[in-house]
Structures are given as C-alpha cells and as structure tokens.
Write a structure and sequence with these properties.
Helix content of chain A is 78%, strand content 0%. Chain A is mainly alpha-helical.
Chain lengths: 313, 540
C-alpha cells in the first residue's frame, strides 16, 4: 500500500511537467497580447514594447519557458502581470472560497443522491423510480446559470430568506458562512445529484440480482438491511468512481457558479486572468487544478480499498 | 413415525404467460422427516430449484406465483404466511445452502460477520455469547484455524472452505429444515466428497431434515435416504434411494441413472504406432508477480509436463481446479506463452514460434470450450460463426458455407438452422455447434476443455459420443481436459493425472483405471460420488 502511494506520487512528477509545458505553450500560441492589454487603449507602440521588455515577453519562448520552469522548481509561481502580486498568494486567497463551495456541494449531493438512487433501485419500475429518474434528466438538462439566477430570484429576492451573493469566510461566523453558501451549493449540486443518483440506482439494481442478496433474504435479513448493508456496500465502488469524476467536473462547474454568485474563488480568478491574458495566474491555476486532480484520483483509488477488500495495491 | 418437518402437498407454481409450459411445477408432493435426507433429482428446467425457492418463499416476485397446494414447515402453513413471519422463519427454522459459494457469500463482508448476521437478525446469542457461538459453528464444519478464517473475506478462502461457511451459516440456529441446492456442483470431486460427508454427519447430529437438490445420481447414491425424480415440473418417481437406484420404474429415471458415466473404462482399440501429432516436452509455465518493493511470487502452473498424442488417440488430462490442466491446454493452443519446454505439432516446433509464423499452425489446433453459452458470439448466426475461420484462412465463401451445412448435419443439427442465433439452441446443441465450428478448420488436434461440464447428464453422454465419433471419422488427435474421472473413462485412450502443475500418473486409460499407482489418483477414485453403485451398467 505504501509502495503504491509512493509510486503514484512519483508518477505525478512527469504528469505535472507535461501539464506545465502544454499550458505554457498553448497560452503563448493563443492570440492576445498582455502588454497591449496592460498598456491600455491610448498606448503608443513604444510603450507597449517597453512593457513587453519589462515583463520579459520579448525573449524567445524557450528562454521564457526555461526561466519559468526554473522559478517553478524553486516553488515560485511568479507574479501576476496585472496586480504584480505573487501568483501563489493570489491563488491561496481564492482557494478558500472554492474549497468551501466544492466541499458543501459534494457532501450535499452525496447525502441527497445516494438515498434517492437506492430507493429508486428498490422500488424499481414504480412511480417512485420513474420520478427520480425523470427529475435527474431535468437536473442534467438545466444550465447552471439559469438555475443560479432562478434560486436568487425565488429565494433571495422574492422570499428574502438568504443573501443574494457574495462570500463570507468561516472565520466571521459559521452561520453567515453557510447562509452565503446555500444557494451556490443548491445550484451546483443539481447536476451532481442527477449523476450520482443515476449511478447509484444502476449499480444497486445490478447488485440486487447477485446470489448473495438471495442468501441474505434466505437468512431472514430485513429489506432495509439487505439494501444498505449488502447491496449499497457492494455498489460503492462505481458510486465512488462517479463521485470522483464529479469532483473533477466540479472544478469546471465552479467557474460559472462563482460568477453568478460573485464568489471570489479560483473560478472567478481564472475567468479574469484569461480575459486579461495574465499568463502567470492562468499557469498557476491550471497547475493547482491538475495537482488537485491527481490527489483526488489517488484518494478515490484508496477509497476503493475501504469498500472492497478484494482491491489491494 | 415422527411428524415430518416439511410437508408439501399439491404445490403448483405458475409460469409467466408465454413460457413453454403453463406451470413451473405441478402438483408436487414431498415430505421430509427429521434426520432424513431427501434428494430431488432432475435436469435443468425440471423445476427442482423452483420447488426449493417456493418452500423458502424466495420466488422472484410477480414472475412465479404459487397457485395451489400447501407447504407446511413443522405443521405451519408457509404459502399463506405474512412476509414478516416468513422472514422470521427463514434462517431460523429453515435455511438454505446454495450452489456457488463464491457468489452466494457477500464479497465485502468478513465471513464470520456473515454468520453473525443470522444470529443478529433473529436475536439469538446476544452480547458475549455471539463470538463463542460463531467459533463453535466454524469448528462444527471442520474449518481449520477458525479464529483467523472467521475474519477472512470470501475471496481469501478456497471453494470448499466457502461452502463450509455457507453450511455453518445454515446451521447457526439449528433449523428444522435445511435446503441444499446443488451444494457440491461447483466443487472439486475430493472437496465434494468431504462436503457430502459433512452434510451427512451434521444433519445427524443436529436432527435436521435435509432437502437436497442435485442433478447427479452419483451424489444421490452417496447421500440420500429417499429420492424424488423431477421432469418438466412433475415428480415422476419417488421412493427409498435403494429401491429407485436398483429398480427404477419410470423410463426417465432409468435414463438418468444410465447417463451417469461408468468409472470403468470402455474397451478401446489400441492406437499402436500411429504418427505422433502432438508432443509436449518438459512444458513449464511460470506465473510471476513481482512489483516494486514487493517480494516476487512464483506459481508454477505447469511444471515440466511431457505428453504425446498420436493420431486417432484421445489423451485425457484429469485434475482438479488449480492442477494446471487448463494451463497445459492453453499453452498447446498457444493462447498463452509457455515459459520453457517444447511443443511439437506434426513435426513443427511451435512453442517459441512468433505470432506471425504461428498463424499458419493455428488452424491445425482447435479448441472446444467448457461453456457453450459463452463461447459462441450471441450476435452472429451459427453459420457465420462456423465459416468465419475457414474464410479467414482463404477458403472460398461458397465452399465454406457448403461445408458448414455438411458439418451441422454431421453433428446432428438440421442444416436449415444455419441462420439461427445461438440463443435459439439448447446447451447440448450449442456444444454440437462448437464442435462443428472446430471441425470446419480441418484441425489435426482437437483440444476439448471440459466440454461437457456445463451440460445436463443426459446430454453429456450424447456429446461425448459425438466427440468420439468425429475423432474417429476425421482421424484426429484429441486432448481432453476434464475434472471428472468418469467422463475420462468414457472417451480417453490414455490418461494423465495432474496435481499442482505436475503429471503424477500417465498411461493407457485401462491401466490407470484398473490399477492406479499414485495416491492422488486413488483419492480421486475414492471421491467419485456413488462409487458403491456400478453406474453405466444399466445402459449395456
């Protein structure tokens, strides 16, 4: 097990190296000039040239890449072209809100979706099953921003139950922190609930045809215990996989949600940085995201061993 | 006479509309007394499992419905009992042992906990009494090191150990009735013998009545006090085991008994000095698992195996699971790479041949697999499955199809069926099609890997006869892999017995069967169920 973890961690090094290279090159090859954007509309070509030289953007791409990589190896992600602040500090500041939103979303989705899926599988073919599946199709189909503005209109503006937007750090009170997260979480969760509920239903249904489910019935075990203790545990591996994929997709999903709810997280940071061609920020965010993917995947693989004793590394 | 633990009267269970008959079982009468073992014998589709599940109340809801009759467990009517009452009875007063202990145990729960669940569900042996009770049960089913095994997961146990766990689970609350549904079918013969003995001793100690479902008259002879023979949903014959075996009344019973292959080999013409088709020399296959920071493990699946098969000869490789018999077959067909040793086919060494040069020889070796339900592509007509190989090797299309028709006729299937799909055939017919498919390639060597294990006994005999017939007709060499000595006795000219990757006994079938030298061969003979009865005589 320790060997497996070590191997996986070592394997992240080439992965991250590739990511760094691809990100760097694609950004440099995409249209748009940060120097021109920085200089503003009234700038003369000389001013732009001057800025470009200051930023080091006039050097050959390979030299720029080498310099960036060298910095990176020393743990320095560079400075933002716009704010001139260190990238690591900027990302660090935006990390908290995104992590909060991602956590509440995943927790809420799992709590709602898994029981829904189990009940749908148990009542397979009945109206309960059909409504859960019907709702999940709706959940897949409604765009995040429509849902977000819908919640804001209904709950924040009309019923005035919750704040419209913004983010309050947990240090300023858990109540305030959570009340600002409810609507974004509801918005972002819908699609994951749909995804996880469908997956749970499918895998539990499959498990319910297994011989050991019949054995459990033959032992006189109650319906509820058969479902939770015997079926759900065996269905866990595909469900956990899909939750893992969900977390990965979530990183993309937060971009829209954070914009709708004006949350100063990584999603917003990415959008702003892309619009301003703030290369160091974009590179930094993508590196952080890919590291997160790698660790989430490792976490999922380790979670398998908890649910299924046959899986050993 | 004591009152029976189980009494079934006039039980009829309806099949869903559109099935091949209206009722799965009809007017079934059965009784099991305390300390009695009653065998229900029948082939697939006879309704024996439906009978068992009806008693347990485990029929799939809505699909199979009991329409009339009574099922009484110690006098209590079960068909009209509430689901709650049935649940309370299941596991406590009646329990069940299933066919395949690997799939019947929950793979993610330690086996000890699965036994504990029975106690827990029925509120027995609470608190501190539970752990000792589980140990007691594990001891009762003769499991070694019960403390450690109780904490193990099913996949860490052998097949026999898993079935012992199932039996411990069934025994946990000393039920009045134990239903065993083909409990030894998935096990090796030696393991089967141990499990049968265990069931017999245990039910005597615990006063339980046992309803034992099987398709194998050998097992019946071994274990049953009374026997009921089922066919197409009806009980066609019932009586004390001795009477039914010695004087079967119904033709179907006679056929089933005759279909049990005799352990005495048939007299066979000597092969003599026919040319050697296949020579295996010191064939070794080693599986290595090694990893980073991990000690390398080595399994010698085949260890220095040397065998020869001449034209017209059938060589049986007999062994239990894990003996390496299938490894040898797969190396010969080059489905896997041998680690060392030489395989010579028609004078050409093929063990180390590269994939490209091997291709020419592929058609010379054809395999018939164990499970005809899975070895034919379900989305392809059987005709297309048969012609695929020859066409790949350049046979003109029209010629391949003509030959496919001829071969179907030859294996006893109407050539008009050539455009049907595999699911439209029975298991026996599918195996015939697989044989036709193999013959279409005009092989020199036929490898039959447990070709009749998945088939009903009555069909087994026919498929074995067919294999023997095509071998003679085409003058083929055949490698016949089986775990069943009785089957080997029917078709093999010579026999090699394998144990842990090595050939422990090798010689002409008549010699090996008449005078087994190795202890393991003798153990295999002793384990064959029903050896006290000379099966196969009735047919002659």
């Amino acid at each position: 097990m320790a060997a497996f973890i070590l191997k996986r961690l070592l394997a992240t090094i080439p992965v991250m190296g590739m990511v760094a290279m691809v990100v760097f090159l694609i950004l440099r090859l995409s249209p748009g000039d940060p120097a021109a954007i920085l200089a503003g509309d009234a700038a003369t070509p000389e001013m732009i040239e001057q800025i470009r030289a200051n930023l080091g953007l006039d050097r050959p791409i390979l030299v720029q890449f080498g310099a960036w990589l060298w910095q990176l190896l020393q743990g320095d992600l560079g400075n933002s072209l716009l704010s001139l602040q260190p990238v690591s500090a900027t990302i660090g500041r935006c990390f908290g809100p995104t992590l909060s939103l991602a956590t509440t979303t995943i927790v809420f989705s799992v709590i709602v979706a898994v029981p829904l899926g189990v009940v749908a599988a148990w009542k397979h073919g009945t109206w309960i099953d059909r409504s859960v599946m019907g709702l999940s199709v709706v959940g897949f189909s409604v765009p995040v921003f429509v849902l977000g503005y819908g919640w804001i209109y209904a709950i924040a503006l009309w019923l005035r139950l919750l704040p419209v937007q913004g983010f309050v750090p947990i240090t300023e009170g858990i109540g305030l922190f959570l009340s600002h997260l409810v609507l974004p979480t509801l918005t972002l969760s819908v699609i994951f609930i749909a995804l996880i509920a469908r997956m749970t239903r499918a895998s539990v249904l499959e498990i319910l045809t297994e011989d050991y489910i019949r054995t459990a019935h033959a032992k006189g075990v109650s319906e509820r215990r058969v479902l939770v203790h015997h079926a759900l545990r065996n269905a866990a591996v595909p469900i956990v996989s899909v939750i893992g994929i969900g977390i990965a997709l979530l990183i993309g999903g937060v971009v829209v949600t954070e914009s709708v709810f004006n949350i100063p997280g990584l999603g917003r940071l990415t959008v702003d940085a892309v619009l301003a061609r703030d290369y160091p920020i974009i590179q930094g965010v993508i590196l952080v995201f890919s590291a997160a993917y790698v660790f989430i995947n490792l976490g999922i693989d380790l979670a398998y061993t908890v649910f299924d004793p046959r899986i050993r590394y | 006479m004591t009152s029976p633990v189980l009494e079934v009267r006039g039980l009829t269970v309806r099949l869903p509309a559109g099935a091949d008959r209206p009722n799965a079982i009809e007017a079934i009468d059965l009784a099991v007394a305390p300390r009695e073992i009653v065998c229900v014998v029948g082939e697939s589709g006879s309704g024996k499992s439906v009978t068992a599940f009806s008693i347990m109340g485990l029929l799939p809801k809505g699909q199979l419905v009991p329409t009339s009759g009574e099922v009484r467990l110690q006098g209590e009517e079960l068909l009209t009992a509430t689901p709650q009452r049935l649940r309370a009875l299941r596991g406590s007063r009646m329990s069940m042992i299933f066919q395949e202990p690997m799939t019947a145990l929950n793979p993610v729960i330690p086996v000890g906990d699965q036994i504990a669940e029975v106690l827990e569900t029925h509120g027995a042996a609470t608190g501190g009494a539970r752990a000792p009770r589980i140990l007691e049960l594990l001891n009762a089913v003769r499991l070694p090191d019960p403390e450690r095994l109780g904490r193990a997961y099913p996949h860490q146990l052998s097949g026999g150990q898993r079935q012992r766990i199932m039996i411990a689970m069934a025994l946990a609350l000393e039920p009045a009735l134990i239903i065993a549904d083909e409990p030894t079918t998935a096990l090796d013969v030696t393991t089967q013998a141990q499990i049968l003995r265990l069931i017999k001793t245990i039910q005597a100690e615990h006063q339980s009545g046992v309803l034992f479902i099987t398709h194998d008259f050998g097992v019946v002879a071994e274990i049953a006090d009374r026997v009921a023979v089922m066919k197409d949903g009806f009980i066609v014959e019932t009586g004390p085991t001795r009477d039914v075996l010695a004087r079967p009344q119904h033709p179907y019973t006679r056929m089933l008994i005759a279909a049990v292959p005799s352990v005495l080999p048939k007299a066979r013409a000597p092969i003599g000095a026919a040319p050697v088709v296949l020579a295996i020399e010191r064939l070794t296959k080693v599986y290595k698992s090694s990893g980073w920071l991990q000690a390398a493990r080595e399994v010698r699946a085949a260890d220095s195996v040397s065998l020869t098969v001449r034209r017209g000869e059938t060589l049986g490789i007999v062994g239990e699971s894990g003996s390496g018999k299938s490894t040898v077959a797969r190396c010969v067909a080059r489905l896997i790479e041998p680690t060392s040793g030489e395989i010579t086919l028609d004078g050409q060494a093929i063990a180390k041949l590269s994939a490209g040069r091997l291709r020419r020889h592929r058609r010379r070796i054809q395999i018939i697999f164990q499970d005809p339900y899975r070895s034919l592509n379900p989305r392809r007509t059987v005709g297309r499955s048969i012609v695929e190989g020859p066409i790949n090797f350049g046979t003109p299309r029209a010629e391949a199809w003509t030959r496919a028709r001829d071969l179907l006729e030859l294996v006893g299937i109407d050539e008009a069926a050539i455009d049907r799909y595999p699911h439209q055939f029975s298991g026996g017919q599918r195996q015939r099609i697989c044989i036709a498919r193999a013959l279409a390639m005009e092989p020199a060597l036929l490898v039959a890997d447990e070709p009749v294990s998945a088939l009903d006994v009555s069909v087994q005999a026919q498929v074995l006869a067919l294999l023997d017939d095509v071998k003679r007709r085409f003058d083929l060499a055949m490698l016949f892999i089986t775990h069943d000595l009785r089957v080997a006795a029917q078709v093999c000219d010579s026999v090699a017995v394998m144990l842990k990757g090595q050939v422990v006994e090798y010689g002409p079938a008549a010699d090996v069967f008449a005078n087994p030298r190795h202890d393991y061969t003798r153990a295999l003979f002793d384990a064959a169920p029903g050896k006290g009865w000379t099966f196969g005589k009735a047919a002659e």
